[in-house]
Amino acid sequence: MAAPGSGGAGRAENGYGSQRRKGPGALATTYLVIYNVVMTAGWLVIAVGIVRAYLTKGSYHSLYYSIEKPLKFFQTGALLEILHCAFGIVPSSVVLTAFQVMSRVFLTWAVTHSVKEVQNEDSVLLFVVAWTITEIIRYSFYTFSLLNHLPYLIKWARYTLFIVLYPMGVSGELLTIYAALPFVRQAGLYSISLPNKYNFSFDYYTFLILVMISYIPTF
Amino acid sequence: MGSRVTFFEVEILDWKTKQQLCFLDKVEPHATISDIRLMFHKSYPQWYPARQSIRLDPKGKSLRDEEILQHLPVGTTATLYFKDLGPQIGWTMVFLTEYAGPLFIYFLFYFRMPFVYGLDDKLTSSPHPVVNLACICHSFHYIKRLIETIFVHRFSHGTMPLRSIIKNCFYYWGFAAWLAYYINHPLYTPPSYGQKQINFAVIMFLICEAGNFSIHVALSDLRRDGSKIRKIPYPTKNPFTWLFFFVTCPNYTYEVGAWISFTIMTQCVPVGLFTFLCFIQMTVWAKDKHYTYVREFKDYPSLRMPIIPFLL
Questions:
Q1: What are the Cα distances from residue B168, in Å, to A209, B99, B105, B122, B172?
Q2: What residue numbers bound the domain in which A199 lies?
Q3: What is the value of pTM for the model shown?
Q4: Does residue A1 sit within a domain?
Q5: Is residue A188 part of a domain?
Q6: What is the predicted ipTM?
Q7: How many distinct structural domains can be found in chain A?
Q8: Tens digit of pLDDT for each residue in B85-116?
């Protein structure tokens, strides 16, 4: 994105300066509005894709394949939000945002994409639907906030629906990781064992179990 | 001097509630903040001086022990604010704990305690000489640090919060266990380039340890008179200190060098990862120190970089 690059370059050299300012400047606001509109549209595309696939197939199984590409694209695109915080154009914590985005990206690529056998699982649909609804609301919330015209409905939806969407998403994520475990074990996926010249070992199976356990403190 | 001494009155208020905690009258004008801390401690035995933050403003910076009452911007009735810094631990204790841990933890793995690698390999030893060498180097590194803590270092601040030591110990002890696990593992693989690689690493290690020690001694000598004032360190006759021409914190430079050499010696990814994290942490500390010097001294040598000559 060239436009924010030029605005961002000045900001990068003077990162502290922009944090002292009251919110992003005009250029940053324009960029953010465009970003949030694009993301809203992207997740709407995913939503429509799910509905169309359901109507075509007549069942809600194995709908992942119909929205695989836009899901990967737009969920990965959210990594930009870490940069938004780092450059101070969004007043959120870099660490917190990084954590949230990375966990989504991890589930998208390191679990669902990597372990093909789980792509048919219903748990995938569970978290994809939760993410889709959440993100449509979230990005439209940001869009309207930036334009200083936030409809109450969006605000209500954001703070109320999460009561359902959050447990739904977490359940879908945990069930998917759990389903992936035997296949990871079988294929030795992303794992390296001794002996080797790096004198290092990593067991992805155990790592996934630790990831599942790490969900507990978030409750 | 005048024949009459005007005594000060000092009231100490809680920084948050503004409640008066203590009222001291007939305080000598040349009393120091240290004296006031001791007086306050008498009324509140649980708040020993090290955990007292005494400041002029409720949210201001803590006053140093050496500050003299009559030189402060206060009237003859001084109002000071107190904040409890929580339990404190002396730097010496901190370092001893942080360094003794890795030293002994490494031995648990080197001697292959039964609970580490399973009963089949318990108390066996490695056929690779480099594993013995690594143990010697690792132990030497931490023993040297313990000796420096006791005999060489002169700390400017007395203490650190107790909470930090728990976090630090997890980090240092945890990493020591992790890297010791792989180096002393029955399936350990010696370096790919064999003895050449090991010899090079040993020489680099010794140079860096000697360098690091030289710098610590040089820094300690800056405070031989017991003062706590910051002075610019300069190169001495010892060639290892000539790194001061190029960097502000050559002790950190040598330290990173020592860990790099240990990584080369053991060819072990966890060691490399630890080295990388050390490098990041020390770069942050070095930059901090560097910019403190630059702000304080107008004549600070302009050639110097924080940690890596000419680069960083």
A1: 26, 11, 15, 30, 6
A2: 11-218
A3: 0.77
A4: no
A5: yes
A6: 0.73
A7: 1
A8: 888 888 888 888 899 999 999 999 999 998 88
